[in-house]
Specification:
It comes from Ensete ventricosum (Abyssinian banana). This is Pentacotripeptide-repeat region of PRORP domain-containing protein. Helix content is 61%, strand content 6%. The protein is mostly helical. It has one domain: Serine Threonine Protein Phosphatase 5, Tetratricopeptide repeat (Alpha Horseshoe). Strand 1 and strand 2 form a beta hairpin. The protein starts with a strand and ends with a helix. It has 7 helices and 3 strands, in the order ββαααααβαα. It has a 3-stranded antiparallel β-sheet with strand order 1-2-3. The longest helix is centred in the first third of the chain and has 15 residues.
Length: 155
């Protein structure tokens, strides 16, 4: 079984077995090529997270990932988010979880799946609510086969 719950009660996390990524699936940093404005916006995002202003942080993150000019794929954005979290002393898993939700809400299911796999591989758990949001996004986009596979991996 790929995923399991630790208790029968409604928990806030779904604990999953760690995903082992192949050696060629590492996140290469293209931080030097990211625009300086993105770095300042990510620092602002982490500051909002640190102050527990989650709605404002999510709104800022949504504007960053859905901007027309932001054509950077997830593997180049994730290291920049991690560096900003490390500099601001903000838990990276919380920021990555929010990124997973934002991608899902925006209908960017492929990038959301990348964020999910990274969350799973690095932290071994994903918030249940985030998985629900992702499933809803898959259903909205008529990706029933992906939705069914994702649900099976969570049982």
């Amino acid at each position: 079984m790929f995923a399991r719950r630790l208790s029968s009660t409604n928990s806030s996390f779904v604990f999953l077995k760690p995903l082992v990524l192949p050696p060629d699936h590492h996140l290469t940093t293209l931080a030097a090529t990211l625009p300086p404005d993105l770095h300042s916006q990510l620092a602002r995002f982490c500051s909002l997270l640190k102050r527990r202003r989650y709605v404002a942080a999510k709104s800022l993150l949504k504007s960053l990932v859905t901007a027309d000019g932001l054509a950077h794929p997830f593997p180049s954005l994730a290291p920049a988010v991690e560096a900003s979290c490390r500099a601001a002393v903000v838990p990276y898993d919380g920021a990555l979880n929010m990124l997973f939700r934002v991608y899902s809400d925006a209908g960017m299911t492929d990038r959301a799946l990348d964020a999910f796999e990274l969350l799973l591989g690095r932290f071994g758990r994903v918030e249940e609510r985030s998985c629900t949001i992702y499933l809803q996004a898959l259903r909205r986009s008529n990706s029933c086969s992906k939705s069914a596979k994702f649900e099976l991996s969570m049982d």
